[in-house]
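Protein Entry — a single chain follows
Fields — amino acid sequence, structure tokens
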Amino acid sequence: MSVVQSILPLAPGERADYWHDLVSGTFVPLDVRLHEPVPSAGTITSRWLGPLQISVVEAGPQTVDRSTRRIAQGGGEYVTVTLQHRGCARLTQDGRQALVRPGSFTCSDAGRPYLREQPEAFRFTAFRVPKQALGVSDGDLRAATGTLFSGTSGTSALVAGFLHRLAEQAAGLDPYTAHQLALTTTDLLAVLVRERRGRLDPQAPEHVRGMLARVREYVLRHLGDPALCPERIAADHHVSVRYLHKLFRAEGTTVGRWILRERLERCRRELARPAPAAPTVAAVAQRWGFVSPSHFSRAFRAAYGMAPRDWQAAAGLRQAGATGGGAAGQDLA
């Protein structure tokens, strides 16, 4: 379900303080300065897909400041990707500035100071995800903050389109589909961050990098299909199998290895789900395209150093220990 919060019902004199608390409660502790004598009726609509929080924000001119003082209050474990729909903005972080126009997006790391200035009425969708879910290094992330991602070309256009559609359709997703799409989102964002760092060969022509991004998105959407193979991937993208292998060879891997790694990572995450929703090892393996339980067990042990059942049991013990002191209520941040 969505959570809709607005300052519209409040008297104008009460709106500024309430909006400050609302913004900080939805994302991370922030200082908010409004630039109107009479604050506009700001609204935030939030929804959760697994670990991914999607929030649509609509309000009048303002500036939000993530200072070291606010960082000390918590929330530093999150990254926020903000897709601009209306109004321009300026994001400053890590010594860089990005001027954001409708259709483009930015990435901000709540673990370090940043400033986001909205000089006019605006509307954007923010996707907040735990850094741990992205699986990128701090160096990779620092290369992406305070920079602009275009929504019109290359990998960033593909990601922007995916994020836009995801936000539009989130309300109609069942829990399982929502969780899987959240995983796909974090994977696509990780690809984008690594590309900005230069991990995806920035010297390659843009159409080559765009093709690799499209192939990866396609693979992530079809990981559960045991018939997924290089021949099918190449045919569906109208390229030769040789060219497909060349794309992945430039990244230091092969098509088959990359598919296996992504399947295993999803199995690992799913086997770590809390006990009431914990699936069987066989069901997880089948769901992510493994036709042979023995092959899955061997591949999992080779990748993570233990059998799938042992990993699931260890995850259950960790969860039991973490909840032993009582579960904290979920906030809007």
About this structure: Confidence is low (pLDDT under 50) at residues 199-203, 325-333. Residues 175-197 form the longest helix (23 residues). The two ends are 16 Å apart (CA to CA).
